[in-house]
Amino acid sequence: MFETAFTIEWGDCDEAGIVFYPNYFYWLDCTYQRWLRTRRLSQRELKRRFNSVTPLVNVGAQFTGPGRYDDELVIRAEVGEWQERRFRIDYKLSVGNIQVASGFEQRAWATVTEAGGLRGASVPTEFRELLK
Amino acid sequence: MFETAFTIEWGDCDEAGIVFYPNYFYWLDCTYQRWLRTRRLSQRELKRRFNSVTPLVNVGAQFTGPGRYDDELVIRAEVGEWQERRFRIDYKLSVGNIQVASGFEQRAWATVTEAGGLRGASVPTEFRELLK
Amino acid sequence: MFETAFTIEWGDCDEAGIVFYPNYFYWLDCTYQRWLRTRRLSQRELKRRFNSVTPLVNVGAQFTGPGRYDDELVIRAEVGEWQERRFRIDYKLSVGNIQVASGFEQRAWATVTEAGGLRGASVPTEFRELLK
Amino acid sequence: MFETAFTIEWGDCDEAGIVFYPNYFYWLDCTYQRWLRTRRLSQRELKRRFNSVTPLVNVGAQFTGPGRYDDELVIRAEVGEWQERRFRIDYKLSVGNIQVASGFEQRAWATVTEAGGLRGASVPTEFRELLK
What we know:
The structure is a homotetramer. Helices cover 23% and strands 41% of the residues of chain A. By secondary structure, chain A is of the alpha+beta class.
């Protein structure tokens, strides 16, 4: 379980004065990265320590209310499902007491081969423990 | 059915040399807007002609291959489902002969009330005909 | 004088692992907006209170070092010049003790006419006082 | 001399209905990349062929008119100055017959050292010829 916050900036909103929706995914990805960081991990550290990356496989979001310029957007993340070679992070996004969106990112665990390609692999127990 | 193309630019990619995924949603939204344009519609025209907007309700994407800097990304769109007050656009994204992603946007039809708020409403037949 | 900070996120960097430079301008604009906010101002409040906006006229930046993923980017802003109808905000951007960039935004003061257009006008004393 | 065009998309504009200005720099960078491409160059090809990159040193833009959603933005680029180790590309941005902005990017020529760092170097004649 991890929680972080972002300020919705002028440039994040469209002509309708609400968040241009692709920016929500920028914040989901940022939340994942910030979460890793609190566990002393990062994209680079994952590569160094596990010789692995966590490419996105499947992603989605539902929007139930508007996020607006100047709002503080709070995002709560938790792993919703561990599979052998994949894991899904669930996100809840709120402004004040209002949930404005929910979303998920399903990521694969992939090790870097000698040829520089990627091969799916089991999510290491150590990594699972870190995101508990 | 509508098809358009984008060039994947340097700034669209991350350190791994592949598209930073939120940008795919930028392109989905652009594809929708371009499609409207070919029907002599646009966000502004929708408002003028139908007093309506089409806010996003639900969105998702699956990634099956990498999009890289300099690639031409072709996006094909079609309406996958018409509901009374909603419609879902399905997208297929490919680079050359390879499908790199698929996605969807479910949008609501909402009319602007006198107070300036939004109220869900039936998708007009005229609009359905235009996106056929 | 105003200071704020941003985390450089994965999606802000390009394949070379350093900030894709247009993002620096996003942060300059955000810094301006955050500064206004601490003065109980905002784009909307400027319009409500002064019937005015502050469109960008001239902008620039010089880059002296790399900003990287995970770095905390500190931005210091101050008004470098007040003109009758314009003002220039100077920015210094640093990561740790290293200045990585400097930049400026020159903005005009413009009031909204009855027809909805913009007309250059003198920067109000009240606004100058607020950004001191 | 090189010319290219972009469609200003919904997501490129802010609440005021005009381009959020950092996006102009995204387009300047894209124009440079597209120009390289027509010369059979690219960031990767520069590295392969010249073992070099062209990091940004100094950048600026002046805004003289609004770019709006649905506008076709035409950008003309030419090298405004060659220095021993740097070059400046000048850009003119127009919508229809109206010039909406001008800008420049000054880039350095830097070779990649054995340790992986960057060292300033003379711009190769071959590169100068290609951007004529």
